[in-house]
Design goal:
Length: 126
């Protein structure tokens, strides 16, 4: 199970890469493994400002559809459009080419509520 130590995590199995007040978000290796083959990623909230834990999109796998939750409040400024044609990137490279959105964070201190790698590993039993 790949849980990079340089990222932050949510209890909803999303990872967060912090770069100043811009964060990149995707789903974890654990999440993509549980979902199975991902066939579609939908994000209709581009350019919207949402609160933390709001649904920002969905990921569809062969057997299920799961909501995607915003890890921190902010404006969704970018969507990884390559996922429209190649959603399998989420399975193949969840922490790289399979990223989903970028957010301009409303309040940097919100990032302190995210989990570190060890705390996330404890949740998934890794």
């Amino acid at each position: 199970m790949n849980v990079p130590s340089n990222l932050k995590y949510t209890k909803d199995h999303e990872w967060v890469k912090i770069d100043g007040d811009i964060v990149t978000v995707g789903i974890t290796d654990f999440a993509q493994g549980e979902l199975g083959d991902i066939v579609y990623v939908e994000v209709e909230s581009l350019d919207e400002t949402l609160e933390a834990d709001a649904v920002f999109g969905t990921v569809e796998a062969v057997k299920t559809v799961s909501d995607l939750f915003l890890p921190v409040a902010g404006e969704i400024i970018e969507f990884n459009e390559s996922l429209e044609e190649e959603p399998e990137k989420v399975n193949d490279d969840p922490y790289g080419d399979g990223w989903m959105i970028k957010i301009k964070v409303a309040d940097i201190s919100d990032l302190e509520s995210l989990l570190n790698a060890d705390a996330y590993k404890a949740i998934i039993g890794a």
